[in-house]
């Protein structure tokens, strides 16, 4: 009898959902199978924390595009009922900055001195990572 499995990477990110005959299927190096129940609504991008699946967070950036030195606000939106108390923000290649979660959201402000396209990673322990890009004119 075939079962439904989540394929999970070493960081707990769901990379795929598959049907397999049994757990002897090898998903590849650094990946493992987690047996799903009939009621587990799991999708790629969700996060496995070792005991349960958590929906992925989302992120927005506003305004976009912006002029050099204008302030943009990156907002992380966490799923209802989250246990997470902080979200990290990181400009690609930069250091992590932690911000507190309030009412299911966390924000961080950026200003850019040079024109270009900047990518920002937004993540939390139970809800994975989302990415946003801002265009600076």
Overview of this protein structure:
- The chain has 137 residues and is mainly beta.
- Helix content is 0%, strand content 50%.
- A hairpin with a 5-residue loop joins strand 8 (86-91) and strand 9.
- The mean pLDDT is 89.
Residue stretches low in confidence (pLDDT < 50, at least 5 long) are none
Number of H/I helices = 0
Radius of gyration, CA atoms, in whole angstroms: 18 Å
**What is the number of strand segments?**
12
Mass-distribution shape: elongated
Biggest sheet strand line-up:
9-8-11-12
| Proportion of residues in β-strands | over 45%
Could you give the distance between the termini?
57 Å
Sheet/helix structural class: mainly beta
Q: What order do the helices and strands follow?
A: EEEEEEEEEEEE
Taking the sheet with the most strands, its summary is:
4 strands, antiparallel
Mean pLDDT across all amino acids: 89
Report helical residue fraction.
under 10%
Features:
137 residues, mainly beta, 12 strands, elongated
Topology:
Blueprint: E1 3-8, E2 14-20, E3 32-35, E4 47-48, E5 53-54, E6 58-62, E7 71-77, E8 86-91, E9 97-100, E10 105-111, E11 116-124, E12 128-136
């Amino acid at each position: 009898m075939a079962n439904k499995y989540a394929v999970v990477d070493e960081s707990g990110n769901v990379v795929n959902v598959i049907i397999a005959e049994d757990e002897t299927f090898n998903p590849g190096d650094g990946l493992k199978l987690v047996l799903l129940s009939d009621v587990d609504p799991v999708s790629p991008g969700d996060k496995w924390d070792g005991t349960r699946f958590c929906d992925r967070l989302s992120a927005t950036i506003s305004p976009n595009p912006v002029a050099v030195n204008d302030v943009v606000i990156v907002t992380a939106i966490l799923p209802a009922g989250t246990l997470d108390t902080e979200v990290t923000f990181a400009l690609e290649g930069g250091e992590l900055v932690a911000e507190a979660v309030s009412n299911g959201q966390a924000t961080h402000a950026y200003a850019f001195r040079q024109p270009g396209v900047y990518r920002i990673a937004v993540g939390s322990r139970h809800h994975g990572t989302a990415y946003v890009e801002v265009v600076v004119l």
